[in-house]
């Protein structure tokens, strides 16, 4: 149940990609080790999916920012 408190503390502070990936990796490791009861495994799986969606959204946003920056560079007149 410690993971739910990690979720709350992460939500209260600034979101961090690396920290979120670490949470997903921890969930996967605990599932692979068989350290979760079945109902907790389903809950943790659902949480991992939410984390992965957050990561995907973050990466998509950053990719869009990079595309705009590159477009700006290629549209700039040469000096």
**Helicity level:** over 70%
Shape: rod-shaped
The description of the largest β-sheet is:
none
Distance between the termini: 59 Å
- The Cα radius of gyration reads 18 Å
Tally of individual helices = 3
- In what range is the share of β-strand residues? under 5%
- Structural class given helices, strands, pairing? mainly alpha
> What's the total number of strands?
0
Low-confidence stretches: 1-5
Q: How do the SSEs run, as a string of H and E?
A: HHH
Please tell me the overall pLDDT. 86
GO molecular function, one term: exodeoxyribonuclease VII activity
Family: Belongs to the XseB family.
Organism: Roseofilum casamattae BLCC-M143
EC number: 3.1.11.6
Explain what the structure shows.
The longest helix is centred in the last third of the chain and has 38 residues, at 38-75. The termini are far apart. 4% of the residues are buried. The chain is built from 3 helices and no strands. Helices cover 82% and strands 0% of the residues. The protein is rod-shaped.
Concise summary:
It is found in: Cytoplasm. By secondary structure, the protein is mainly α.
Topology:
Elements: H1 2-12, H2 17-32, H3 38-75
Key features?
single chain; 79 residues; mainly alpha; 0% strand; disordered N terminus; exonuclease
């Amino acid at each position: 149940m410690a993971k739910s408190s990690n979720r709350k503390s992460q939500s209260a502070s600034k979101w961090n990609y690396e920290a979120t990936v670490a949470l997903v990796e921890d969930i996967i490791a605990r599932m692979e080790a068989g350290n979760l009861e079945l109902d907790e495994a389903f809950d943790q799986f659902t949480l991992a999916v939410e984390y992965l969606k957050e990561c995907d959204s973050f990466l998509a946003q950053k990719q869009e920012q990079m595309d705009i920056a590159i477009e700006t560079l290629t549209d700039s007149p040469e000096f």
